[in-house]
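Re: the multi-chain job from yesterday

Posting the exact lines I submitted so nobody has to dig through the queue logs.
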Amino acid sequence: MLQALMPLLVDGLANAALIFFVAVGLSLVFSVLRILNVAHGSFYAIGAYASVSLSLWIVSAGLSPWLTLPALAVSAAIVAAILGPAVERGFLRWTYGRPESLQILVTFALFLIFEDLQKLVFGVQSLYQDAPVQLFGTSEIGGILYLNYQLVLIALAVLVVVALRLLMSYTRFGKLMVAVVADPEVSQALGIDTRRVYMAAFTLGVFLAAFGGALASPTVGVAPGTGPEAIVLAFAVAAIGGLGQIEGAALAALVVGVVRVLAIYFAPEFEAVVPYLVMLAVLLVRPYGLFGSVRVRRI
Amino acid sequence: MLVLRSVKARLGGVLVLRDVDLAVEAGRTTVLVGRNGAGKTTTLRVIMGLVPLAAGRVAMAGTDLGALPSHARAAAGIGYAPEDRRLIPAFSVEDNLLLPALALRLPSAERRARLDQVYDLLPELKAMRGRAGGHLSGGQGKMVALGRALMVGTRLVLLDEPFQGLAPALALAYAEAIGRIRSRMPELALLITESSPHLLDRIVDRTVQIERGEIVRDTVPAA
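And the result, C-alpha coordinates for all chains:
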Protein backbone atom coordinates (compact mmCIF):
# COMPACT_ATOMS: atom_id res chain seq x y z
CA MET A 1 0.00 0.00 0.00
CA LEU A 2 2.83 2.37 0.85
CA GLN A 3 4.24 1.72 -2.61
CA ALA A 4 1.05 3.07 -4.09
CA LEU A 5 0.52 5.83 -1.54
CA MET A 6 3.96 7.44 -1.67
CA PRO A 7 3.73 8.93 -5.17
CA LEU A 8 0.19 10.06 -4.37
CA LEU A 9 1.41 11.62 -1.16
CA VAL A 10 4.17 13.58 -2.91
CA ASP A 11 1.64 14.69 -5.47
CA GLY A 12 -0.83 15.70 -2.76
CA LEU A 13 1.77 17.59 -0.75
CA ALA A 14 3.02 19.43 -3.82
CA ASN A 15 -0.55 20.51 -4.48
CA ALA A 16 -0.95 21.46 -0.85
CA ALA A 17 2.19 23.58 -1.09
CA LEU A 18 0.68 25.54 -3.99
CA ILE A 19 -2.61 26.09 -2.17
CA PHE A 20 -0.67 27.11 0.92
CA PHE A 21 0.88 30.02 -1.00
CA VAL A 22 -2.57 31.33 -1.85
CA ALA A 23 -4.07 30.63 1.58
CA VAL A 24 -1.29 32.24 3.58
CA GLY A 25 -1.51 35.40 1.46
CA LEU A 26 -5.28 35.46 1.89
CA SER A 27 -4.82 35.06 5.63
CA LEU A 28 -2.17 37.77 5.82
CA VAL A 29 -4.32 40.26 3.92
CA PHE A 30 -7.30 39.39 6.10
CA SER A 31 -5.46 40.00 9.35
CA VAL A 32 -3.73 43.23 8.34
CA LEU A 33 -6.40 44.88 6.16
CA ARG A 34 -9.36 43.08 7.75
CA ILE A 35 -10.71 42.32 4.33
CA LEU A 36 -11.61 38.90 3.01
CA ASN A 37 -10.39 39.28 -0.55
CA VAL A 38 -12.56 37.22 -2.88
CA ALA A 39 -10.31 38.26 -5.79
CA HIS A 40 -7.24 36.75 -4.15
CA GLY A 41 -7.38 33.62 -6.34
CA SER A 42 -7.16 35.81 -9.42
CA PHE A 43 -3.61 36.74 -8.44
CA TYR A 44 -2.78 33.03 -8.46
CA ALA A 45 -4.18 32.72 -11.98
CA ILE A 46 -2.53 35.91 -13.21
CA GLY A 47 0.79 34.78 -11.69
CA ALA A 48 0.41 31.50 -13.55
CA TYR A 49 -0.41 33.25 -16.84
CA ALA A 50 2.45 35.72 -16.44
CA SER A 51 4.92 32.97 -15.67
CA VAL A 52 3.84 30.68 -18.49
CA SER A 53 3.92 33.59 -20.95
CA LEU A 54 7.41 34.57 -19.86
CA SER A 55 8.62 30.95 -20.06
CA LEU A 56 7.09 30.47 -23.50
CA TRP A 57 8.83 33.62 -24.66
CA ILE A 58 12.17 32.54 -23.15
CA VAL A 59 11.99 29.17 -24.92
CA SER A 60 10.76 30.57 -28.24
CA ALA A 61 13.45 33.26 -28.20
CA GLY A 62 16.02 30.48 -28.01
CA LEU A 63 17.33 31.56 -24.62
CA SER A 64 18.61 29.08 -22.07
CA PRO A 65 15.70 27.11 -20.56
CA TRP A 66 17.36 27.60 -17.18
CA LEU A 67 16.08 31.18 -17.35
CA THR A 68 12.58 29.80 -16.85
CA LEU A 69 13.46 29.14 -13.19
CA PRO A 70 14.12 32.74 -12.15
CA ALA A 71 11.21 33.65 -14.42
CA LEU A 72 8.88 31.94 -11.93
CA ALA A 73 9.78 34.40 -9.18
CA VAL A 74 10.28 37.37 -11.48
CA SER A 75 6.83 37.06 -13.04
CA ALA A 76 5.23 36.84 -9.58
CA ALA A 77 7.19 39.89 -8.45
CA ILE A 78 6.08 41.86 -11.51
CA VAL A 79 2.44 40.90 -10.98
CA ALA A 80 2.66 41.89 -7.30
CA ALA A 81 4.48 45.16 -7.95
CA ILE A 82 1.83 46.27 -10.44
CA LEU A 83 -1.41 44.82 -9.08
CA GLY A 84 -0.67 45.05 -5.34
CA PRO A 85 -0.47 48.83 -5.01
CA ALA A 86 -3.01 49.40 -7.80
CA VAL A 87 -5.74 47.24 -6.25
CA GLU A 88 -5.10 48.33 -2.67
CA ARG A 89 -4.80 52.06 -3.38
CA GLY A 90 -7.34 52.08 -6.19
CA PHE A 91 -10.11 49.99 -4.67
CA LEU A 92 -9.66 48.39 -1.28
CA ARG A 93 -8.72 51.47 0.72
CA TRP A 94 -12.14 52.99 0.02
CA THR A 95 -13.74 50.07 1.82
CA TYR A 96 -11.71 50.20 5.05
CA GLY A 97 -13.97 50.39 8.07
CA ARG A 98 -17.03 49.87 5.87
CA PRO A 99 -19.47 46.96 6.29
CA GLU A 100 -18.11 43.55 5.36
CA SER A 101 -20.87 43.06 2.81
CA LEU A 102 -19.51 46.03 0.84
CA GLN A 103 -15.96 44.69 1.04
CA ILE A 104 -17.09 41.30 -0.24
CA LEU A 105 -19.03 42.93 -3.08
CA VAL A 106 -16.10 45.11 -4.13
CA THR A 107 -13.63 42.22 -4.10
CA PHE A 108 -16.17 39.99 -5.86
CA ALA A 109 -16.50 42.64 -8.57
CA LEU A 110 -12.71 42.71 -8.86
CA PHE A 111 -12.71 38.93 -9.17
CA LEU A 112 -15.21 39.07 -12.08
CA ILE A 113 -13.23 41.85 -13.78
CA PHE A 114 -9.98 39.89 -13.44
CA GLU A 115 -11.61 36.75 -14.86
CA ASP A 116 -12.70 38.61 -17.98
CA LEU A 117 -9.41 40.46 -18.30
CA GLN A 118 -7.57 37.13 -18.26
CA LYS A 119 -9.70 35.83 -21.11
CA LEU A 120 -9.19 39.08 -22.99
CA VAL A 121 -5.40 39.05 -22.60
CA PHE A 122 -4.52 35.34 -22.59
CA GLY A 123 -7.47 33.84 -24.49
CA VAL A 124 -9.45 30.79 -23.45
CA GLN A 125 -7.10 28.05 -24.64
CA SER A 126 -4.88 26.30 -22.13
CA LEU A 127 -1.28 27.56 -21.98
CA TYR A 128 1.45 25.16 -21.02
CA GLN A 129 5.21 25.30 -20.64
CA ASP A 130 6.91 22.66 -18.50
CA ALA A 131 10.58 23.59 -18.91
CA PRO A 132 11.14 23.96 -15.12
CA VAL A 133 9.75 20.48 -14.46
CA GLN A 134 11.94 18.98 -17.20
CA LEU A 135 15.03 20.73 -15.87
CA PHE A 136 14.71 19.23 -12.42
CA GLY A 137 14.22 15.74 -13.81
CA THR A 138 13.19 12.74 -11.75
CA SER A 139 14.64 10.63 -8.97
CA GLU A 140 14.04 7.00 -8.26
CA ILE A 141 13.54 6.12 -4.62
CA GLY A 142 12.65 2.54 -3.70
CA GLY A 143 11.71 1.73 -7.25
CA ILE A 144 9.30 4.66 -7.51
CA LEU A 145 9.90 7.58 -9.84
CA TYR A 146 9.34 11.06 -8.41
CA LEU A 147 9.28 14.45 -10.11
CA ASN A 148 12.01 16.45 -8.40
CA TYR A 149 10.04 19.61 -9.14
CA GLN A 150 7.31 18.43 -6.77
CA LEU A 151 9.85 17.90 -4.01
CA VAL A 152 11.13 21.43 -4.67
CA LEU A 153 7.59 22.78 -4.27
CA ILE A 154 7.22 21.12 -0.88
CA ALA A 155 10.60 22.45 0.25
CA LEU A 156 9.71 25.96 -0.96
CA ALA A 157 6.49 25.96 1.06
CA VAL A 158 8.42 25.00 4.20
CA LEU A 159 10.92 27.72 3.41
CA VAL A 160 8.16 30.31 3.03
CA VAL A 161 6.65 29.37 6.41
CA VAL A 162 10.02 29.92 8.06
CA ALA A 163 10.70 33.10 6.10
CA LEU A 164 7.33 34.62 7.00
CA ARG A 165 7.82 33.77 10.66
CA LEU A 166 11.27 35.40 10.64
CA LEU A 167 9.83 38.42 8.81
CA MET A 168 7.14 38.86 11.48
CA SER A 169 9.48 38.44 14.42
CA TYR A 170 12.70 40.13 13.40
CA THR A 171 12.17 42.79 10.76
CA ARG A 172 10.88 46.33 11.04
CA PHE A 173 8.15 45.74 8.49
CA GLY A 174 7.08 42.54 10.24
CA LYS A 175 6.85 44.16 13.64
CA LEU A 176 4.90 47.10 12.26
CA MET A 177 2.52 44.61 10.65
CA VAL A 178 2.03 42.77 13.94
CA ALA A 179 1.30 46.09 15.67
CA VAL A 180 -1.19 47.15 12.99
CA VAL A 181 -2.93 43.77 13.21
CA ALA A 182 -3.24 44.14 16.99
CA ASP A 183 -4.34 47.78 17.03
CA PRO A 184 -4.40 49.90 13.87
CA GLU A 185 -5.43 53.08 15.65
CA VAL A 186 -2.82 53.11 18.36
CA SER A 187 -0.27 52.10 15.73
CA GLN A 188 -0.96 55.33 13.88
CA ALA A 189 -0.70 57.37 17.04
CA LEU A 190 2.71 55.82 17.69
CA GLY A 191 4.04 56.94 14.34
CA ILE A 192 3.26 54.01 12.05
CA ASP A 193 2.13 55.05 8.58
CA THR A 194 -0.61 52.46 8.41
CA ARG A 195 -1.41 53.26 4.77
CA ARG A 196 2.03 52.04 3.76
CA VAL A 197 1.75 48.96 5.94
CA TYR A 198 -1.59 48.10 4.32
CA MET A 199 -0.17 48.55 0.84
CA ALA A 200 2.98 46.56 1.56
CA ALA A 201 1.12 43.73 3.31
CA PHE A 202 -1.36 43.50 0.46
CA THR A 203 1.44 43.46 -2.11
CA LEU A 204 3.16 40.67 -0.17
CA GLY A 205 -0.13 38.74 -0.20
CA VAL A 206 -0.45 39.26 -3.97
CA PHE A 207 3.15 38.09 -4.44
CA LEU A 208 2.55 34.90 -2.47
CA ALA A 209 -0.55 34.05 -4.53
CA ALA A 210 1.12 34.95 -7.83
CA PHE A 211 4.20 32.92 -6.85
CA GLY A 212 1.96 29.94 -6.08
CA GLY A 213 0.37 30.31 -9.51
CA ALA A 214 3.74 30.71 -11.21
CA LEU A 215 5.03 27.56 -9.50
CA ALA A 216 1.90 25.67 -10.50
CA SER A 217 2.06 26.69 -14.15
CA PRO A 218 4.74 24.19 -15.29
CA THR A 219 2.81 21.27 -13.77
CA VAL A 220 -0.64 22.01 -15.17
CA GLY A 221 -2.03 23.92 -18.09
CA VAL A 222 -3.24 27.41 -17.25
CA ALA A 223 -6.78 28.03 -18.42
CA PRO A 224 -9.90 29.95 -17.35
CA GLY A 225 -11.12 28.53 -14.04
CA THR A 226 -7.66 28.47 -12.46
CA GLY A 227 -8.44 31.44 -10.22
CA PRO A 228 -11.83 30.31 -8.92
CA GLU A 229 -10.49 26.85 -8.09
CA ALA A 230 -7.57 28.36 -6.19
CA ILE A 231 -9.65 30.80 -4.16
CA VAL A 232 -12.20 28.20 -3.09
CA LEU A 233 -9.52 25.80 -1.89
CA ALA A 234 -7.54 28.61 -0.29
CA PHE A 235 -10.61 29.76 1.61
CA ALA A 236 -11.07 26.24 2.95
CA VAL A 237 -7.40 25.97 3.95
CA ALA A 238 -7.30 29.43 5.55
CA ALA A 239 -10.52 28.72 7.45
CA ILE A 240 -9.26 25.36 8.69
CA GLY A 241 -6.00 26.89 9.87
CA GLY A 242 -7.66 29.92 11.39
CA LEU A 243 -7.64 33.20 9.44
CA GLY A 244 -4.48 35.16 10.14
CA GLN A 245 -2.38 32.16 11.14
CA ILE A 246 0.78 31.45 9.15
CA GLU A 247 1.54 28.07 10.70
CA GLY A 248 -2.18 27.32 10.79
CA ALA A 249 -2.42 27.76 7.02
CA ALA A 250 0.59 25.49 6.56
CA LEU A 251 -0.82 22.77 8.80
CA ALA A 252 -4.24 23.05 7.17
CA ALA A 253 -2.71 22.77 3.69
CA LEU A 254 -0.87 19.66 4.89
CA VAL A 255 -4.06 18.15 6.31
CA VAL A 256 -6.02 18.90 3.14
CA GLY A 257 -3.21 17.51 0.98
CA VAL A 258 -3.02 14.24 2.91
CA VAL A 259 -6.78 13.82 3.15
CA ARG A 260 -7.11 14.31 -0.60
CA VAL A 261 -4.51 11.60 -1.19
CA LEU A 262 -6.34 9.21 1.10
CA ALA A 263 -9.57 10.01 -0.73
CA ILE A 264 -7.97 9.35 -4.11
CA TYR A 265 -6.74 6.00 -2.83
CA PHE A 266 -9.80 4.81 -0.97
CA ALA A 267 -12.76 6.71 -2.44
CA PRO A 268 -11.76 8.64 -5.56
CA GLU A 269 -15.26 9.97 -6.14
CA PHE A 270 -14.92 12.06 -2.94
CA GLU A 271 -11.59 13.66 -3.80
CA ALA A 272 -13.09 17.00 -4.76
CA VAL A 273 -15.25 17.36 -1.68
CA VAL A 274 -12.96 16.16 1.12
CA PRO A 275 -11.25 19.54 1.67
CA TYR A 276 -14.65 21.05 2.40
CA LEU A 277 -15.74 18.12 4.56
CA VAL A 278 -12.57 18.67 6.61
CA MET A 279 -13.37 22.37 6.81
CA LEU A 280 -16.90 21.59 7.97
CA ALA A 281 -15.67 19.17 10.62
CA VAL A 282 -12.98 21.55 11.91
CA LEU A 283 -15.24 24.59 12.02
CA LEU A 284 -17.97 22.69 13.85
CA VAL A 285 -15.50 21.87 16.61
CA ARG A 286 -13.31 24.97 16.43
CA PRO A 287 -15.26 27.83 14.81
CA TYR A 288 -12.12 29.98 14.49
CA GLY A 289 -9.99 27.25 12.93
CA LEU A 290 -7.25 25.06 14.32
CA PHE A 291 -4.98 27.92 15.41
CA GLY A 292 -7.48 30.75 15.55
CA SER A 293 -9.08 32.41 18.52
CA VAL A 294 -11.61 35.17 18.92
CA ARG A 295 -9.73 37.63 21.03
CA VAL A 296 -6.09 37.31 20.18
CA ARG A 297 -5.31 38.44 16.66
CA ARG A 298 -1.97 36.95 15.82
CA ILE A 299 0.02 36.80 12.67
CA MET B 1 3.10 75.54 22.29
CA LEU B 2 -0.02 73.54 21.45
CA VAL B 3 -3.01 75.68 20.66
CA LEU B 4 -6.61 74.64 20.03
CA ARG B 5 -8.91 77.34 18.65
CA SER B 6 -12.69 76.98 18.53
CA VAL B 7 -12.34 73.25 17.98
CA LYS B 8 -15.45 71.30 17.08
CA ALA B 9 -15.56 67.54 16.61
CA ARG B 10 -18.25 64.94 15.99
CA LEU B 11 -18.53 61.33 17.03
CA GLY B 12 -21.07 59.38 14.98
CA GLY B 13 -22.74 62.61 13.88
CA VAL B 14 -23.08 63.98 17.41
CA LEU B 15 -21.23 67.19 18.21
CA VAL B 16 -19.03 66.14 21.13
CA LEU B 17 -16.62 69.06 21.16
CA ARG B 18 -18.64 72.22 20.71
CA ASP B 19 -16.09 74.91 21.30
CA VAL B 20 -12.72 74.05 22.75
CA ASP B 21 -10.03 76.66 23.21
CA LEU B 22 -6.92 75.40 24.88
CA ALA B 23 -3.31 76.45 25.16
CA VAL B 24 -0.70 74.02 26.42
CA GLU B 25 2.65 75.58 27.15
CA ALA B 26 6.09 74.03 26.95
CA GLY B 27 7.47 73.12 30.35
CA ARG B 28 4.02 73.21 31.92
CA THR B 29 1.61 70.59 33.17
CA THR B 30 -1.94 71.26 32.08
CA VAL B 31 -4.77 69.19 33.48
CA LEU B 32 -8.04 68.88 31.65
CA VAL B 33 -10.75 68.05 34.16
CA GLY B 34 -14.37 67.21 33.59
CA ARG B 35 -17.01 64.59 34.06
CA ASN B 36 -17.27 61.40 32.02
CA GLY B 37 -18.52 62.28 28.57
CA ALA B 38 -17.49 65.94 28.84
CA GLY B 39 -15.10 65.54 25.89
CA LYS B 40 -11.70 65.03 27.55
CA THR B 41 -10.75 61.91 25.65
CA THR B 42 -12.10 63.30 22.40
CA THR B 43 -9.98 66.43 22.85
CA LEU B 44 -6.83 64.30 23.11
CA ARG B 45 -7.91 62.18 20.16
CA VAL B 46 -8.46 65.31 18.07
CA ILE B 47 -4.96 66.49 18.96
CA MET B 48 -3.63 63.09 17.92
CA GLY B 49 -5.61 63.13 14.67
CA LEU B 50 -7.63 60.06 15.59
CA VAL B 51 -10.89 62.01 15.47
CA PRO B 52 -11.29 64.43 12.54
CA LEU B 53 -11.61 68.12 13.19
CA ALA B 54 -15.10 69.36 12.26
CA ALA B 55 -14.13 73.02 12.64
CA GLY B 56 -11.46 75.13 14.29
CA ARG B 57 -7.72 74.81 14.34
CA VAL B 58 -5.08 72.71 16.09
CA ALA B 59 -1.53 73.98 15.86
CA MET B 60 1.76 73.09 17.49
CA ALA B 61 4.57 75.63 17.61
CA GLY B 62 2.85 77.55 14.82
CA THR B 63 2.46 74.51 12.54
CA ASP B 64 -1.08 73.58 11.62
CA LEU B 65 -1.64 69.97 12.66
CA GLY B 66 -5.05 69.78 11.00
CA ALA B 67 -3.66 68.52 7.71
CA LEU B 68 -1.24 66.02 9.23
CA PRO B 69 -2.09 62.32 9.54
CA SER B 70 -1.72 60.77 13.00
CA HIS B 71 1.65 59.19 12.37
CA ALA B 72 3.11 62.52 11.30
CA ARG B 73 1.92 64.08 14.56
CA ALA B 74 3.79 61.38 16.44
CA ALA B 75 6.82 62.16 14.30
CA ALA B 76 6.46 65.82 15.27
CA GLY B 77 7.06 64.82 18.89
CA ILE B 78 3.63 64.15 20.39
CA GLY B 79 3.37 61.11 22.64
CA TYR B 80 -0.01 59.66 23.55
CA ALA B 81 -0.98 57.21 26.29
CA PRO B 82 -4.62 56.17 25.80
CA GLU B 83 -6.78 55.48 28.82
CA ASP B 84 -7.17 51.81 27.96
CA ARG B 85 -3.36 51.33 27.51
CA ARG B 86 -3.61 49.48 24.20
CA LEU B 87 -0.30 47.68 24.35
CA ILE B 88 0.59 45.16 21.65
CA PRO B 89 -0.09 41.90 23.52
CA ALA B 90 2.34 39.76 21.52
CA PHE B 91 5.26 42.15 22.12
CA SER B 92 7.43 42.21 25.21
CA VAL B 93 7.38 45.35 27.34
CA GLU B 94 10.64 46.47 25.75
CA ASP B 95 9.36 45.84 22.21
CA ASN B 96 6.25 47.83 23.07
CA LEU B 97 8.46 50.70 24.19
CA LEU B 98 10.63 50.43 21.09
CA LEU B 99 7.72 50.26 18.63
CA PRO B 100 7.46 54.05 18.10
CA ALA B 101 11.24 54.32 17.68
CA LEU B 102 11.05 51.59 15.05
CA ALA B 103 8.11 53.25 13.34
CA LEU B 104 9.85 56.63 13.24
CA ARG B 105 13.14 55.06 12.09
CA LEU B 106 15.12 56.65 14.90
CA PRO B 107 18.85 55.99 14.61
CA SER B 108 19.92 53.25 17.01
CA ALA B 109 21.90 55.59 19.27
CA GLU B 110 18.85 57.82 19.68
CA ARG B 111 16.63 54.78 20.21
CA ARG B 112 18.98 53.52 22.93
CA ALA B 113 19.18 56.95 24.59
CA ARG B 114 15.42 57.35 24.74
CA LEU B 115 14.95 53.83 26.08
CA ASP B 116 17.56 54.45 28.78
CA GLN B 117 15.82 57.67 29.72
CA VAL B 118 12.48 55.89 30.02
CA TYR B 119 14.02 53.15 32.18
CA ASP B 120 15.61 55.86 34.25
CA LEU B 121 12.32 57.67 34.79
CA LEU B 122 10.27 54.50 35.22
CA PRO B 123 12.59 51.92 36.79
CA GLU B 124 9.74 49.44 37.28
CA LEU B 125 9.61 49.01 33.50
CA LYS B 126 13.20 47.81 33.36
CA ALA B 127 12.35 45.03 35.79
CA MET B 128 9.56 43.74 33.57
CA ARG B 129 11.06 44.49 30.15
CA GLY B 130 10.92 40.84 29.04
CA ARG B 131 7.30 40.21 29.95
CA ALA B 132 4.61 40.05 27.28
CA GLY B 133 2.41 43.12 26.93
CA GLY B 134 -0.63 40.88 27.11
CA HIS B 135 0.36 39.52 30.53
CA LEU B 136 0.48 42.73 32.54
CA SER B 137 -1.94 44.03 35.11
CA GLY B 138 -3.89 47.16 34.27
CA GLY B 139 -1.62 49.32 36.40
CA GLN B 140 1.58 47.89 34.94
CA GLY B 141 0.10 48.39 31.50
CA LYS B 142 -0.49 52.05 32.27
CA MET B 143 3.16 52.47 33.23
CA VAL B 144 4.24 50.86 29.95
CA ALA B 145 1.85 53.10 28.00
CA LEU B 146 3.38 56.11 29.76
CA GLY B 147 6.89 54.94 28.89
CA ARG B 148 5.85 54.32 25.30
CA ALA B 149 4.41 57.83 25.06
CA LEU B 150 7.71 59.22 26.35
CA MET B 151 9.58 57.36 23.60
CA VAL B 152 7.74 59.51 21.01
CA GLY B 153 6.75 62.60 22.92
CA THR B 154 9.80 64.79 22.97
CA ARG B 155 7.74 68.00 22.95
CA LEU B 156 4.27 67.08 24.15
CA VAL B 157 2.87 64.11 26.03
CA LEU B 158 -0.86 63.43 26.26
CA LEU B 159 -2.00 61.21 29.13
CA ASP B 160 -5.62 60.12 29.09
CA GLU B 161 -7.03 59.39 32.56
CA PRO B 162 -3.75 57.99 33.86
CA PHE B 163 -5.13 57.20 37.33
CA GLN B 164 -8.35 55.59 36.19
CA GLY B 165 -8.57 52.11 37.68
CA LEU B 166 -5.20 52.23 39.40
CA ALA B 167 -4.78 50.74 42.87
CA PRO B 168 -3.88 53.50 45.39
CA ALA B 169 -0.24 52.39 45.70
CA LEU B 170 0.19 52.29 41.93
CA ALA B 171 -1.53 55.64 41.53
CA LEU B 172 0.97 57.11 43.93
CA ALA B 173 3.89 55.55 42.07
CA TYR B 174 2.47 56.87 38.81
CA ALA B 175 2.10 60.39 40.22
CA GLU B 176 5.69 60.25 41.46
CA ALA B 177 6.81 59.16 38.00
CA ILE B 178 5.05 62.16 36.49
CA GLY B 179 6.83 64.33 39.06
CA ARG B 180 10.20 62.88 37.95
CA ILE B 181 9.35 63.44 34.29
CA ARG B 182 8.40 67.01 35.11
CA SER B 183 11.72 67.78 36.77
CA ARG B 184 13.93 65.81 34.34
CA MET B 185 12.32 67.01 31.13
CA PRO B 186 11.84 70.70 31.86
CA GLU B 187 10.87 71.64 28.30
CA LEU B 188 8.20 68.97 27.90
CA ALA B 189 4.57 70.03 27.74
CA LEU B 190 2.19 67.68 29.56
CA LEU B 191 -1.53 67.51 28.97
CA ILE B 192 -3.34 65.19 31.35
CA THR B 193 -7.04 64.44 31.49
CA GLU B 194 -8.37 63.50 34.87
CA SER B 195 -11.67 63.15 36.65
CA SER B 196 -9.98 63.12 40.07
CA PRO B 197 -7.20 65.69 39.78
CA HIS B 198 -6.14 65.79 43.45
CA LEU B 199 -3.31 63.31 42.81
CA LEU B 200 -1.72 65.88 40.55
CA ASP B 201 -2.11 68.82 42.94
CA ARG B 202 1.59 69.31 43.46
CA ILE B 203 2.66 69.40 39.84
CA VAL B 204 -0.24 71.09 38.09
CA ASP B 205 0.50 74.43 36.48
CA ARG B 206 -2.87 74.96 34.95
CA THR B 207 -6.32 73.44 35.32
CA VAL B 208 -8.80 73.60 32.50
CA GLN B 209 -12.35 72.45 33.04
CA ILE B 210 -14.41 71.05 30.22
CA GLU B 211 -18.18 70.55 30.35
CA ARG B 212 -20.39 69.27 27.57
CA GLY B 213 -17.71 69.90 24.98
CA GLU B 214 -16.89 73.42 26.05
CA ILE B 215 -14.12 74.91 28.16
CA VAL B 216 -15.82 76.50 31.16
CA ARG B 217 -12.91 77.41 33.40
CA ASP B 218 -9.21 77.96 32.91
CA THR B 219 -7.24 78.54 36.07
CA VAL B 220 -3.59 78.97 36.91
CA PRO B 221 -3.13 78.29 40.62
CA ALA B 222 -1.29 81.00 42.51
CA ALA B 223 2.28 79.94 43.16
